[in-house]
Amino acid sequence: RGEEREGRGQRGRSGIDSSLQSPGRSCRESGIPGVNQARNEKIARLCEKKMATTQEISLFLLCLHMLACFLEANASRQPSGSSKLRQAAIEMIQQEQYEGAVELYKRIMEKEEAIADDYNNAAVCLQELDNLEESQEMYRQGIKRFYHNEKLHRNLGLMLEERAEKTWREEKKVTEQVDKLNGEAMSHLTFALRLNLAKLWEKHASKVPKQKRIAVGGKKTVAIFYRTRSELELQDGVWGHRQLLEDGYRSDRGEEHLVFLARHMVKQGFNVEVYANMMEQDVGMDKDGVMWRPFYALHAMLPPVWNGTHVLWPKMPVDKQPDVFISLQNLEGAHLFNSSVHEARNITPPVSFLWLKDLLKSPSSLSSSFLGPLHGVYLNSHFHSSMTHSDFPSCLRLMKPAIEQEPPWVIRQTENSNRRFLFAGSPFAGLGILLHEWPKIRSSLLDLSPTLEVLFDFSVHDDDKHKGSPWYADLKRKIHSMTQQEGVIFRPPLSQRKISRAYARSGFCLYPSSLPETRSPDMFKAMLMGCIPVTSRTPYSSLNESCSPFDLGPSPLPFIANASNAQELRFELNPSWVAAWTESVTMAARLEEEELADIRERMVQTASARLSWRSMAGDLAAEWRRDIESGVGGSCGKPVEQVVKRKDPSERPPDEREKEEL
């Protein structure tokens, strides 16, 4: 200010700096010599001061921001006292001192310094102490404070599911309490899955290819979600559709059926999108028109739901919802599109299905609260249906078996040699008992010079699943040593074409399995290639309906609903059953050539017609289009008394029974 007053004194007594009023005027215009230079110097000084002030303010704001970040980071760091208590609690858990650990966690909670893991660990300790009510309340307290914590929701859902199963086994039926527990369990498990998808989507969304849907001609979209509950990490269960052509590939988890289903539904006029944990090179549109996307990309289509704070989460979907949604072997996944937002905003939800490829671990899962939002549950066989408990049987639908009948999956049938035997399947499916019985089989057929070809070994998936298990290492060692027997040919990993040739040149497929398989793809391929099955014919499997009437194994044992003795269930634990199977193998090889040729001809024709993808996909497409138009499917959610029961097969005319069996 002093400088300004001094300047004004030099320029005149008016006190008005005309040069400042009109900084654009020249010295000539002002009429005062030297004013322009003084004005420029003054403006420069003011600009320097203004810039300095702006820099100081920016620096001050930056310091505030850094301080806020520092305080936020330190907010999650607990005081040394809580950290010591937490460490002591973890040490007690490692020593199985669960009561002491719970007390320490409660002390941390009293200080209001607990984190989500404290509530989770305390609840797990209470479960170990069989204090389920208090454990359940501990989970709920944690969820109240940390609602968007995936671990708390998942563990509470699993505990409620276990309680529902225990109650079901005590009551021998689905009571109101069982249904309530199942409903609450599924809501927590579904929300945990949503949180997992959202977390991965936010991190990897930029790598996901955009949807490519064809809306011309009213094409409908089918989305298939394949991610099992046990796969928690991103690296778990990685696979790709190109694996089908890799040497030694064995579809032990149902991926082959999924791949061909998707391809044939494209031929039926659908846009098909598969959401799975794909290899990076397999993501995108394949040559068959199937869109393969990472499983977490489904998050972009999910409708919002009301969370614990009564806020819709997430936002409305970015991508258009599918017309048909199928969750493969994931119960909570089937409920991902179950949201009240659909009705509130007049949005048509997709037709949702659950597709089970294995037997349910918890038989009480298919209660009314679970089935209500679904259009149906697909099962792989009649055996699968008989072993699946449901109060709404009309919700259960049959996913008909089908096998790709084009090269290299199936080749033209060649001359099947009756002295060649084949094993194709999981090593757990009776390979040990087959190699144990092989010396007896070979000695009784020495004049034929019999050979046994073993196609598949223990897979990488088997090694990862049973890593560190002594029984698995012992089984693997024993089987590998027994493959050194005379007459046994242990094949390295083969291409699909070479596997098909092995089926085509073998006379019999030996399969002494006691696994409760819901479908038998290896037997389907054997029958298509003229390789006659000789199985254990266990009633606790789909083998009888898959291979009948061409299975030359022993007479099947009667089905025992409540077998108390393990020998009644396990083929390898019943010596007389094993002896009968071994005798069946030698008798099958001694049959007349004309009789075996007739069996093979009828078997190949029947299997070719029964296992056609064109027929299966056509029926499925018509079923889905009907469900889309009507908006309902089956009678999910209806009481049992409102369901029209199917007639018992024995009450039908003989010609109808034969047609159904065929």
TrEMBL record:
Gene3D superfamilies in UniProt: Glycogen Phosphorylase B (3.40.50.2000), Tetratricopeptide repeat domain (1.25.40.10)
InterPro entries: TPR-like_helical_dom_sf
Signal peptide bounds: none
Domain of life: Eukaryota
Disordered: region residues: 1-33, 630-662
Start-end of Basic and acidic residues biased regions: 643-662
The protein, known as: Uncharacterized protein
Species per Swiss-Prot/TrEMBL record: Hanusia phi
